[in-house]
Amino acid sequence: MNYDILLKFGEITLKGANRAYFENTLLRQVRYRIKPFGSFNVYKSQSTICVEGRDEATDMDKAYEACKKIFGVISMCRAYETEKDIEAIKKKAAELAPALLSGAKTFKADARRADKSFPYTSPEISAEVGYAILTVCPDVKVDVHDPDVVVRVEIRDEKAFISGAREKGAGGMPVTTNGKALLLLSGGIDSPVAGHMICRRGVKLEVIHFESFPYTSERALEKVRELAKLLAGYNGAVCFHTVSVTKIQEALSKNCDEEYFTLLLRRFMMKIAEAVARERECKAIVTGESVGQVASQTIDALNVTNSAVSLPVFRPCIGLDKEEIIQRARQIGTYETSVLPFEDCCTVFTPRHPKTKPVLENVLKEEARIDCEALIKEALETRRQEWIKENGSDD
Ligand code: ATP
Ligand code: MG
């Protein structure tokens, strides 16, 4: 049966004078994300976004799945349209009841009138609809306090809608309302989760990945592209930058103390990321680091990495246990791809005894053994940029 999708705004309804801007951004995102699935009417009505298919060819199920990933939506449901007439509403409710109540022992009908000129009050509509449902489902009981299912009736300006259980939306704020940031995306579990968390706060992500061909393979890069594609399901199209750090790693291994390899490489990554971020107008850098997870993530090591750049560095996984990060990765659908066993540039040239309590002064001394500026310039010349989309939609 065909249905409309109703999306409720989340936090954005609190934003006072900026409210229209947040709502219109969300509206645009919804239109963009469901475009591959047919032709839709998307409009705003009383702090709800309504999505209706224009013809039979539209795939409402796929559109519904896509809407689940749109940040700024607090809750959502499938809603079945009817005429604004009490008899039509009752007839539709009776028709839908077996599906909406499947498996439920108790229910309540809950009506709301946005259009106060409708000739029945909300309690009257609820009672009429409840009665209509009981006539087709005599085994279910009404429970107004703790029902298994709430059948909602909304009388809006244009039409009436009947809907069943409301699902949680993706939450957060519409992407782009908080600017852009550059995510350092490895092939691991943590960085996609970090990206998702920041994106959820309304930040549009661009992504940078460092490869070290021939030490890392084309297949390893393909895996990271796949992760970027999964992130695009939340972020919209992702601008994906690839930079080679092969020359840097070779210079480090030839000239510097092995104990400092990882730290020095991380400083290079940050500096390169900062240069790309500034060019692309990204206002922050995002990483998947978490305190104490590995030697390069002790507080001392993080300080050494931080001091390489002046842009703010967001590390949303900083206080999460690995188990918690894994749980999030499963929820957002990146885990299965992240655990595919391919090498990362951080796993080649790894020191046997990395410094866990590095002193910045000593790190800088090691760094002075190589021509950092020239190496960064050379690395930036290897940069490739592509747009990665979740599916074939246009921007
Ligand atoms: P992840 O699970 O995301 O790979 P990790 O626990 O393996 O993280 P590290 O390898 O030390 O930790 O990397 C820490 C962070 O540095 C990553 O979360 C990511 O943001 C960034 N990073 C590491 N390797 C790369 C890479 N090859 N390209 C881009 N960013 C990287
Ligand atoms: Mg990693």
Question: Layout of helices and strands, plus pairs?
Answer:
Elements: E1 4-9, H1 19-34, E2 40-45, E3 48-53, H2 60-67, E4 73-82, H3 86-100, E5 106-113, H4 122-136, E6 141-142, E7 149-155, E8 160-163, E9 167-168, E10 180-184, H5 190-200, E11 204-211, H6 218-235, E12 238-244, H7 246-255, H8 261-279, E13 285-286, H9 299-306, E14 313-314, H10 322-332, H11 335-338, H12 360-367, H13 372-381, E15 384-388
Parallel strand pairs: 5-6, 5-7, 10-11, 10-13, 11-12, 13-14
Antiparallel strand pairs: 1-3, 1-4, 2-3, 4-8, 4-9, 7-8, 12-15
Helix pairs in contact: 3-4, 5-6, 5-10, 7-8, 8-9, 8-13
The structure holds adenosine-5'-triphosphate and magnesium ion.
Residues 184-186, 188-191, 208-210, 287-289, 293-294, 296, 344-346 line the site of adenosine-5'-triphosphate.
CATH topology of the largest domain: Rossmann fold
Proportion in helices: 25-40%
> How many domains make up the 3D coordinates?
2
Low-confidence stretches: none
> H/E element string?
EHEEHEHEHEEEEEHEHEHHEHEHHHHE
Under the CATH scheme, which class of the largest domain?
Answer: Alpha Beta
The overall average pLDDT, rounded, is 92
- Residue fraction in strands: 15-25%
Radius of gyration: 26 Å
The oligomeric state of the chains shown is single chain
Which geometry do the CA atoms define?
Answer: elongated
What bound compounds does this protein have? adenosine-5'-triphosphate, magnesium ion
Number of strands: 15
Provide the structure class: alpha/beta
* Main sheet overview: 9 strands, mixed
Per CATH, the superfamily of the largest domain is HUPs
Number of helices: 13
CATH architecture type of the largest domain: 3-Layer(aba) Sandwich
Distance between the termini: 30 Å
